[in-house]
Amino acid sequence: MTAPRKPGESPGTPPLGGVLKGLFRRFVPPTLELHDIQALILRPRPAPYYGTHAFVEIMDAAGGREAMRRLRTRVTSAADWREARSAWTAVALSYRGLEALGAPASALASFPRAFREGMAARADKLRDHGPNDPSRWQAPFGTGRVHLMVSVYADSEEAWRDELAGYEEQFATLTGLRVLLRQDFGAQPESRNAFGFKDGFTQPVVEGSGVEGWPGDGRPIKAGEFILGYKAEGGHALGAPTPEVLGRNGTYLVFRKYHSHVDAFNRYLHQGADTPEGREFLAAKLVGRWRSGAPLELAPEHDDVGLGADDSRNNDFRYRDDPKGLRTPVGSHIRRMNPRDTELKVLSDVNIRRIIRRSTTYGEPLGDSLRDDGKPRGLDFIAISARAIDTVEFLQSEWINSGNFIGRGTEKDPLLGVQDENAFFTVPGTPPRRISGIETFNTLDGGEYFFMPSLTALDWLAGL
Ligand code: HEM
After folding, report:
1. 463 CA to middle of ligand 1, Å?
2. Region (Disordered) spans which residues (predicted)?
């Protein structure tokens, strides 16, 4: 089991590293309107975790508004979560969902174009082609019928089941809603994802949230980058939907359901190395961390399980002293997704490209098998920020499906890139190793763009 990530994240004794760091930690009183902000935005995912995402269609506006009223009683705010129950709910709406609730035309028109169009219509911007093309998505994604995403997160199986039982009781009599897809999730043993990696380490520190980062998490980033209504990095608040009651303290959530092809990943490791140690080394090079979470930058030769488990150290690194990627390949997943202080060939402000990740793993482990067992497994990728849609479209086109920004030409992100027949991954060294035969290890089963309203906005929507 992973150690608790942040203060108050889950019950239990903090790791020694955390306690020592706690002695030096400066208390930062929150300045955001936490009571109005949904907990999921600022509440770290517990370890272990259990839960459900439900994708819901609103059949009639009255039923939808009644659902908002009842959901409002279940959504936990970011102010309550430290003392709150061990299960909590988050709610988000698609553009079609806002329409189905009967939101006024002026409010609908105030949302950005990409949100109004929806993820499937943005396939070109996202480079969702080939195996990721919306025509191949699992229903109901991309059909325009996903109006509402309701997510329950819990830190124990019992709390999760209790919470769902509460829902069944409260929603059994409600008409006008249809659950189109229910996706249960829960980390694999030791909170690993489908590929056997611990995940969820690096999160941006949101200024004013009262949640302080661990060493290496970087300076606090202006709250307006993550929550609407506050100053962003540019000194002004980003444009928000109107009226203010709808936009303020809300944010955007990008959901992408990935099917992980662990068998293909394992075959690639076999192609690149003859020994189990060599295969672990290559797996770490692809990601930038060992499966324990220990970063290659701090543990370049061997895994260091203690380092992986120590939150006061496992994110405390930069890339400045590794410009050629001899420790962490410049093309590895974590270095692409958050280049930190890497000198980029195509300039970009990395601080406005940060996302809060609340992704969840589903399915059983496949282990080191080279053959697929036909069972679905993968990752429900969840990115939250006030510019989440822009950021994910940027990451997809510039940092995932291209290598230009790091001088790597057509090479793509090894975990997420849509790879062609001649694709390869480069492990820098003298000489560098170019390992061909890399496949698309994660294909997209579908996704949606959502708006995550504040608690006040939920009331407003219920009263439309
Ligand atoms: C099936 C899909 C994915 C898998 C298996 C995966 C796996 C991982 C793993 C193992 C890590 C390192 C541990 C951690 O901090 O979580 C990581 C980090 C990260 N991933 Fe992913 N990821 C996936 C999708 C994505 C997507 C779609 C994005 C963005 C569009 C993304 C962005 C990031 C970021 C920003 C980090 C942190 C980088 C840092 O440490 O500085 N990931 N991912």
Report:
1. 39
2. 301-330
Which DSSP string corresponds to 435-456?
Answer: EE-----EEEEEEEEEEE--HH
Rounded Cα–Cα distance for residues 138 and 23 (Å): 49
Q: Which of 119, 201, 333 to mutate to test the pocket of ligand 1 (most atoms within 8 A of CB)?
A: 333
Helix (H, G, I), strand (E, B) or coil at 203: coil
> Two tokens at 274?
């003859």
CA 9 from chain centre, in angstroms, equals 17
The set of residues, in sequence order, having a beta carbon less than 8 Å from that of 306 and lying 6+ positions away, is none
Ligand 1 center from residue 337 Cα (angstroms): 7
Q: Are 369 and 446 in contact (CB under 8 A)?
A: no
**Ligand 1, atom nearest to 256 Cα:** 27
Query: At residue 436, what are phi and psi to the nearest 5 degrees?
Result: -85, 180
Distance between CA atoms of 20 and 9, rounded to whole angstroms? 17
**Rounded average pLDDT per 10-residue block, the chain, 464 residues:** 34 36 54 96 88 97 96 91 78 98 98 98 98 98 98 93 91 90 87 93 92 85 97 96 98 98 98 97 98 98 96 95 97 96 81 90 95 97 97 96 91 97 95 96 98 98 96
Number of H helices, E strands in the chain: 15, 11
Write a three-state SS string for 288-321.
CECCCCCECCCCCCCCCHHHHHCCCCCCCCCCCC
Rounded (5°) CA angle 356-108-141: 55
In 155-271 the beta strands, taken as DSSP E runs, fall at 177-186, 251-260
Residues paired with residue 231 on neighbouring β-strands, in sequence order:
237
